[in-house]
Write a structure and sequence with these properties.
Distance between the termini: 30 Å
CATH topology: Nucleoside Triphosphate Pyrophosphohydrolase
Number of helices: 3
Oligomer: single chain
Largest sheet: 7 strands, mixed
Order of helices and strands: EEEEHEEEHH
Shape: globular
Structural class: alpha+beta
CATH superfamily: Nucleoside Triphosphate Pyrophosphohydrolase
Strand content: 35-45%
Radius of gyration: 15 Å
Length: 150
């Protein structure tokens, strides 16, 4: 019997019509700054929707409205061999929270145009980050009711 346990994560591609909301954070393995969507782990007794909204708020200081599911992905981190199952949502920004306190590992929050994202693509946390943006740009979306809210 194996002790293997995958990590369940969420990410949110937030688009304002011209720019994408990304966070710059310190990679825990290398210590280098990397770019990512607002993302994180599912917590106990939390739905995937709640996790996506919470992680976006905690990492960016923005309230967003989820609009669809971009996809599901399995990723094995090359640095430590951990397997992640990631649900990626697309969302639109509603409002910046004036008194937001961001997670301590967030270095900066950026609104970037696609061309700016491509310019820093070598600094993405994982290949899933740019892949999610490309999927968003392709127009592929799945309805939120693809996932049971319970």
């Amino acid at each position: 019997m194996s002790d293997w346990q995958p990590h369940v994560t969420v990410a949110t591609v937030v688009f304002d019509g011209a720019r994408y909301l990304l966070v710059e954070e310190r990679d825990k393995t290398t210590g280098k700054p990397v770019f990512n969507q607002p993302a994180g782990h599912l917590e106990a007794r939390e739905t995937l929707f709640q996790a996506a909204l919470r992680e976006t708020r905690e990492e960016t200081g923005w309230e967003v409205m989820l609009e669809g599911v971009l996809g599901l992905a399995r990723y094995v981190a090359p640095g430590n061999g951990v397997t992640y199952y990631r649900t990626t949502f697309c969302a639109r920004p509603l409002q910046a929270l004036p008194d937001a306190v961001l997670d301590s590992d967030i270095l900066a929050v950026h609104w970037l145009r696609y061309e700016e994202i491509l310019a820093v693509s070598a600094r993405m946390r994982s290949p899933l980050v740019l892949a999610a943006i490309e999927q968003h740009r392709s127009g592929i979306r799945y309805p939120l009711d693809l996932i049971s809210p319970a």
